[in-house]
Amino acid sequence: MPRIVWRHKVEPASNPPPGPARPDGKVVAGEARHQPLSYWASTRRPLPSLSLVLPIMLAYELGVLWQGGASAASVRTGADAWMRHILASLGLVDQWLPPLALVVILLGWQVASSRDWRFSPSILPVMLLESCVLAVALVGVSRLIDLGFSVLDRNALPVLSVVSPPARTSLTPLIGCLGAGVYEEALFRLVLIPILFALLRLLQTPQVLASALAVTGSALLFSLAHHAGTPGEAFTWFVFVFRWMAGVFFAWVFVIRGFGIAVGTHTAYDIFVGWVGWHL
After folding, report:
1. Would you list the DSSP string of 158-223?
2. What are phi and psi of 144, to 5 degrees?
3. Is the peptide bond before 231 cis (omega within 30 degrees of 0)?
4. Degrees (nearest 5) of the Cα angle 246, 250, 255?
5. Rounded CA separation 279/143 (Å)
6. 275 and 167 in contact (C-beta within 8 Å)?
7. Is the whole model's pTM more than 0.70, yes or no?
8. Residues 43, 127 contacting (CB under 8 angstroms)
């Protein structure tokens, strides 16, 4: 009688998770593949933007408390003062609420986007350098607009040639430059452009046209806001047109390069022109 031999079927091992290939071509189990994003892609994400903006915002807030003391509200820049006035009308008067709200918005954006939270800190100095380059480009744009107005009025000197450099004996103007860079970009770019774009899309506006109108409209409101309220800046066509074009410039930087680069560019431009007094 033949013997019966029981053979146990051996199940094949489950495939190991994919991992990076070793020099011999084998895959290391348990290690996830990670393809680092390019600088261009990384800098558009919310978390790197927050990492660049947060030190600027903290420097501004601490500078306001240091310079203003009990009258800190008098040191605050326009967009910051507007937002705080609106919040105060709703009973929200905590001085740290606007910066905290901005942090929450960017972190919420990061969570909602389901993107990787990791990025190389080495991109932050490059982001600052890029912001300075874009700010210099905007200084050049202001010079071209200035020359254009001088050509239209042949008897007038270019506006920028008669602007005296600001006094730098006080740090208050520098603090204002930091605040304008953060809060004007937060209000007119981070908040207003998506709202305008969403409204235009609800009205069945084509996407490209909606983008252009949202950028142009936010820039127009950005320029008009500087002449509104009490006290508002005296209206001149040069200042109005330049701020409109600057608003378009900042808006496209925001759309193409992200919020962090937009804040860095705005801040650098304000420092170059509003504190250093550099007009090329």
Report:
1. PGGGGPPPPP-SSSHHHHHHHHHHHHHHIIIIIIHHHHHHHHHHHTT--HHHHHHHHHHHHHHHHH
2. -65, -45
3. yes
4. 145
5. 7
6. no
7. yes
8. yes
Cα distances (angstroms) measured from residue 230 to each of 6, 36, 78, 181: 95, 50, 11, 21
d(CA 173, CA 64): 11
d(CA 100, CA 152): 47
Helix axes 172-185, 46-68, angle to 10 degrees: 140
CA separation for the pair 133, 185 (Å, rounded): 18
Sign of torsion, CA 158 159 162 164?
A: negative
3-state secondary structure at position 45: coil
- Per the document, the length of the chain is 280
For 219-266, how does the pLDDT look when each residue is reduced to its tens digit (9 = 90+)? 999 999 988 766 677 888 888 999 999 999 999 999 999 999 999 999
Buried b / exposed e along 108-122 (16+ C-beta atoms within 10 A): ebbeeeebeeebeee
Tokens of residue 89, six digits: 């009308």
